[in-house]
Amino acid sequence: MSAILIVEQVLNGLQSGVMLFLMAAGLTLIFGVMGLINLAHGSLYMVGAFAAAAVAGATGSFVLALGAALVAAALAGGIVELVVIRRLYGRDHLDQVLATFALILIFSEGTRWLFGSFPLYLDIPDWLAGPVTLPGGIQYPLYRLALIVVGLVIAAGLGLLISRTRIGIQIRAGENDREMIAALGVDISRLYTLVFALGAGLAGLAGALVGAIQSVQVGMGEPVLISAFVVIVIGGIGSIKGALVGALMVGLTDTLGGIFLPELFKLFTDPAKATATGSAFASMAIYVLMAAVLVWRPTGLFGARA
Amino acid sequence: MSMKTLMTAAALAALAQSAGAEVKVGMITTLSGGGASLGIDTRDGFMLALDKSGRDDIEVIIEDDQRKPDVAVQITDKMIQSEKVDVLTGIVWSNLAMAVVPAATAQGLFYLSTNAAPAQLAGKGCNQNYFAVSYQNDNLHEAAGAYTKEAGYAKPFILAPNYPAGQDSLNGFKRFYDGELAGEIYTELGQTDYAAEIAQIRASGADSVFFFLPGGMGISFLKQYADSGVGLPVVGPAFSFDQAILQAVGEAAVGVSNTSTWSKDLDNPANAAFVAAFQEKYDRLPSIYAAQGYDTANLLVSALEKADVSDADAFRAALAEADFDSVRGKFSFAANHHPIQDIYVREVIKEGDIYTNKITGIAMEDRANAYVDECSM
């Protein structure tokens, strides 16, 4: 195992972490501010990817495609909040899970109805394609480096939005005491729609960014959603900082676990068996991490309340 | 409506139904969710062959299994008990086949497999009423192993998802490739990011890559592999290079060698007629799943010409003769009711705006399967 391989894997872990952050940020804000469990967040990720694939196919521009993903997912999120989610705030979590699960089915079949069952094509633009050579002779895909940069810039922007702007103050206040902020004259329902659309837009953007290197197909959001839930539980519900730290931890654990655990098992058993058991343990690694964090800090790393 | 008229109406309806169709076929396949394109092609190929046969006494009941074993089992029970089907077919995924086939054949029904053919049903668990029209699951991987060896690669890196068909895949590959391996990894089922695996391939000193990653997993892997600049030659089974997903992979797949029992440019009259008719009816190119569905329906029709489905022994013997024009050319059944057929090497090319395959050679001739001797029926 060379140093180059390890550096490359750390970069891979960071890249998957920042993309996970874009998903988890919206999820944690929505849960933190509105107390809503939104299972349909993965569908908004899918909406973003499909919108990007459609626009990229029609115009050939990747930047326009990303814009379209952001707008389409935010719009879909806004509409869903106004039509469905709004009725769920007062209900208990089981009703919310049921309703948002129904939304997953509606989004999935609706997308199939619009685009068909065959996976769509969305590719990296030429100006971001191919590998670059980093100091130390490491070859790394330029697009993945770009994803890391974009993800960190968005994380910084979101941090500023929450800590420095008026809307950020309202969001934080809404997390702490929604009756009080409504009593102070803040239009709480408008705030909710805004937060929901913001979270949806970020998920859509992540879907488009990741869709270019993966496959754009119905149901692509659900596996990511599960990891995103793990992230917000680790980071602490409602905390953007927690989502970032949690996402990076999950990304790195997942990537590095997949490499090192099979190597570790090779010390004890024959290679074929070691790869099988090693990969089985690696797929559990993020859940073990979550359990460990919860034992140490039951509200998550940066969580304020249980 | 009184009870009496209701009963009469029901009896009449039952009569009308039995007069309309003599053979009932239950098709259980995946028509929704991520794997839907495979089931849709299976269904379309199957129905195309029935249309062309001109027989109107075959009724097909089609149900969506949602790629879930429990749903498939429920549908099967319904089809057997209330629809009284004679023949079942259509399942795409091996785990669903394992949930359905043994129970159905134990009740005396015929099952004709359009795709899934796990090792368990080919060896000790074989059944006289179970016919795999597609292949035995290991076949394409065995052919990839044989091709890798023949092409002179000395250090392939091999990977597959960590589930039964993935383990069968790597075992099948190693059955016919006995040289050194640069590495062997099992990935997570449903994994979409392969950056870590690609880094390992780069560091391993491999001279080629073999992978089995069906569906969206293969699309993700190929796009990321192409972008990584690793650039080693890639070999795989047909699943990741099939017409159903090739357009989504795009440029990244061009030049890849893949093993298949069928290709749209296979030179025989049955295939030419099939490809033309499929394109005309559905306005897209057929996939291997469509070809297998088409062959399955033609096998069924050929057996019905010779025997009545109610005479199980005669019908079974008629099926075993495989007296139909397969789109794959040569086709016969081995003793365990799995095909003996040629397995080809194809290369992905771009034809106009469409990505598709062309045949470049034969990987294995008259290949049956590794489990014939374990089966006693």
Map the helices and strands.
The complex is a heterodimer of chains A (306) and B (377).
Chain A: H1 3-34, H2 41-59, H3 62-83, H4 93-115, E1 131-134, E2 138-141, H5 142-164, H6 166-176, H7 178-183, H8 188-211, H9 221-235, H10 240-266, H11 271-296
Chain B: H1 3-20, E1 23-29, H2 36-53, E2 58-64, H3 69-81, E3 87-89, H4 94-106, E4 110-113, H5 119-122, E5 130-132, H6 139-150, E6 156-161, H7 164-176, E7 183-187, H8 195-204, E8 208-211, H9 216-228, E9 234-237, H10 243-249, E10 257-260, H11 269-282, H12 288-306, H13 312-321, E11 332-333, E12 339-351, E13 354-367
Parallel strand pairs in B: 1-2, 1-3, 3-4, 4-5, 6-7, 6-8, 8-9, 9-10
Antiparallel strand pairs in B: 10-12, 11-12, 12-13
Helix pairs in contact in B: 2-11, 2-12, 3-4, 6-7, 9-10, 12-13
Domain Leucine-binding protein (chain B): 22-352
Organism (chain B): Tropicimonas isoalkanivorans
Protein name (chain B): Amino acid/amide ABC transporter substrate-binding protein, HAAT family
Could you explain the architecture of this structure?
Chain A has helices at 3-34, 41-59, 62-83, 93-115, 142-164, 166-176, 178-183, 188-211, 221-235, 240-266, 271-296; strands at residues 131-134, 138-141. Chain A is mainly α and 306 residues long. Chain A has a single domain (3-296), classed as ABC transporter involved in vitamin B12 uptake, BtuC, CATH 1.10.3470. Chain A has a two-stranded antiparallel ribbon with strand order 1-2. Chain A is globular. The termini of chain A are far apart. The mean pLDDT of chain A is 90. Chain B contains 13 helices and 13 strands. In chain B, strand 3 (87-89), helix 4 (94-106) and strand 4 (110-113) form a beta-alpha-beta unit. Chain B is an alpha/beta fold. In chain B, helix 2 (36-53) packs parallel to helix 12 and helix 6 (139-150) runs parallel beside helix 7 (164-176). The radius of gyration of chain B is 21 Å and the shape is globular. The model of chain B is unreliable at 15-20 (pLDDT under 50). Chain B has 2 domains: 3-137 and 267-341, Rossmann fold (3-Layer(aba) Sandwich), CATH 3.40.50; 139-262 and 343-373, Rossmann fold. Chain B has helices at residues 3-20, 36-53, 69-81, 94-106, 119-122, 139-150, 164-176, 195-204, 216-228, 243-249, 269-282, 288-306, 312-321, and strands at 23-29, 58-64, 87-89, 110-113, 130-132, 156-161, 183-187, 208-211, 234-237, 257-260, 332-333, 339-351, 354-367. In chain B, strands 6, 7, 8, 9, 10, 11, 12 and 13 form an 8-stranded mixed beta sheet that branches. A 5-stranded parallel beta sheet of chain B has the order 2-1-3-4-5, sandwiched between helices. The chains are: A mainly alpha (306), B alpha/beta (377). The A-B interface holds A 1-2, 4-5, 8-9, 12, 15-16, 108-109, 112, 117-121, 123-124, 129-131, 139, 141, 143-144, 210, 212-220, 223, 255, 258-259, 262, 271-272, 275-276, 279-280, 282-283 and B 32-34, 36-37, 40, 162, 167, 184-188, 190, 192-193, 195-197, 199-200, 202-203, 215-216, 219-220, 223-224, 227-229, 244-245, 247-252. Chain B: It holds the Pfam family Peripla_BP_6. Chain B: Belongs to the leucine-binding protein family. Chain B: One of its GO terms (biological process) is amino acid transport. Chain B: Residues 1-21 form the signal peptide. Chain B: InterPro entries: BCAA_transport, Leu-bd, Peripla_BP_I. Chain A: This is Amino acid/amide ABC transporter membrane protein 1, HAAT family.
